[in-house]
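Entry 14. Structure prediction run on the chain below.
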Amino acid sequence: MEAIDLTTPDLSGAAWKKSSLSGGSGGNCVEVAGNLPEAVTVRDSKNPTGPALVFTLGEWHTFLTAVKSGHFD
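Output returned:
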């Protein structure tokens, strides 16, 4: 398997999605791009040209499992 450099990912092909629950009022929202190979990226929807957090698929899966189990409630 070829190593992927997650330190400087190319986000030009990212398909950003905002939750349908975020509404249209421009509140505190994040956008997620899960279409990149070997990575899931997250950014602030109010600052789309700003920095993005980059997670491996394993890290993202662990995070979603914790959210679904109520770990952060």
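Helices lie at 57-68.
Filed with the rest of this week's runs.
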